[in-house]
Amino acid sequence: MELKLDEVKGGHNGDELFQQMLKDIMTGLRKKMVQPVLEENRKLASSLEQFREEDRAAITELLQRLEVLENKIQQVPLVILAALRDAINQAGGGNKDAQ
Q: Where on the tree of life does the source sit, at the highest rank (predicted)?
């Protein structure tokens, strides 16, 4: 927009010109500065939500694996006792009546 000196001299026209210039400046600022930031924020929010979903899935998988591990750990004493019993029986020192 080109500024003409004779337009500025008139009171009412000067106000309209001033208003139009402010409007143009604000529109330009929004286009060049605010809009890109808003778009980047939207992208970041989308990425963050995707990461959260991936984290939830990973946590669910870890909890399932932890449950399997807990079950195996609970079985370890029985496995050890059974192995000891079998070793004693193979050595011939076990009581065959106890079986």
A: Bacteria
